[in-house]
Amino acid sequence: MPPGKDVTARELLDRGRAKVLTELADQPETQATLALTIGKAYRSLGLYDSAEPLLQRSLALRRQRFGEIHREVAESLDALADLYGRHDEAAKAEDAARRALAIHRALGDEPGTAESLNNLALALEDKSDLAAAEPLFWEALRIRRKYFGRADKESVAVLNNLATLRRLKGDLAGAESLYRQALSLARDAFGPGHPWIVALHGNLGVLLTYRGDLAGAEAAYREALAVARRAYGGEHPSIALTLNNLASVLVDRGRDRWPEAESMYRQALAVQRKLLGNEDHKVSITLNNLADLLEMKGDRKAARPLYEESLRIVRKVFGEEHPRVADELSKLAGLLADQGDLESAEPLALEALAIRRKLLGEAHPSYAASLVVVGSLRLAQGSPGAAEPLLRQAVAVYQKALPEHHRDTAAARSLLGSCLAARGRPAEAGPLLLSGYQDLRGKLGPDHPRTLAAQRRLDAFRGTARATGS
């Protein structure tokens, strides 16, 4: 179904669904095909709860008509795997994809195999099994290029998914190359106003944010938002996601952009709660980001319940060991530390560190972020000797994984400088404090909270040096 305004599309789909379910009972094959088509259309509008019963109906009718080993049964399973993946039900997505894959392989259907491989890889990625997911994506891409050539439009999805996986593994240069390949192919295959253009500009914005290119990220997100509004009309999960991501960049671009950012977060949150419910992990992302902004504005009291709600959601959705759980634990730990509640902050920070070490490895920037949180706690507890190796390791990981002068590296250098100053080593501390502050000022501006924190550390160091004559 072509993109249109959600209200009109929903009304048309509801009418079609009623007809399919009531008037085609004596035509099971037709009913199965139309149920699949309407279910996919609901899915494309983000109406997942409406989509699932239709896709399940399609699967049940086809199993009854054809048995288990049939191409149309696999087609319905693939549609369900895609739906469950979008709805953050990784276990269900994996099960449906594995069953579809087994059918395609039994039939010798390589193009169908490629779709199931892609769905299965996405489910494994959602479970943080990146090592198992990557070869499946590459196999899916190889099959599609074998049968349909390098201009195959369906390869856009596989290239995008591979790029996201490379980003999650910390290979930012490799990810950017794949995203740009996918975007070029999507423009040629679909034209400039297609939903895939929305997704790819959005994903490129995420990557450019990681790389510290905030101007590039803002441009990518604004292009994604403009295309999304043309493609979807009013309320849609993709619009909410793009608003959320654009707001995050605006926060980092300066205090004068914060009012626009807060408005975007609140718009995104309202749409997500309406369309997805209060337990969806995308709601948790926006809650987290809004809490970040409120904390930076100094309203920690308002931020804390948002962090806590976000943590509750991701634990329910993903279980106890997942990168998203670690993200929320780390954020809440930082807030509690800033409020002076070091005792409550420490177990959360250590839990986040352990999860990231296990799932992402010690060379990943997110692991370095946890080292910084724990190192900061040790500094606040008056233990600079315990903080130093943590902060040194964080700086080393960031320097290897991130571009030169990245804001995260700069903040970690500033903290390490403060740590060394506390240990009575001013000759080592001064250059780290100065370079950390200068890079943060250059990347985020003079009024950003991270820049101001680095400035306070540098000013304190200089004040001590003047007082002691060193």
Could you explain how this protein is built, in words?
- α4 (71-86) runs parallel beside α6 (110-126), α7 (130-148) runs antiparallel to α8 (155-168) and α13 runs antiparallel to α14 (281-296).
- The protein has 470 residues and is mainly α.
- It is built from 22 helices and no strands.
- It is elongated, with a radius of gyration of 24 Å.
- The termini are far apart.
- Mean pLDDT is 92; it is low at 1-7.
- Among the domains are: 156-233, Tetratricopeptide repeat domain (Serine Threonine Protein Phosphatase 5, Tetratricopeptide repeat, Alpha Horseshoe); 402-470, no CATH class.
CATH class assignment of the domain at 156-233:
Mainly Alpha
Structural class: mainly alpha
Overall geometry: elongated
The end-to-end span amounts to 72 Å
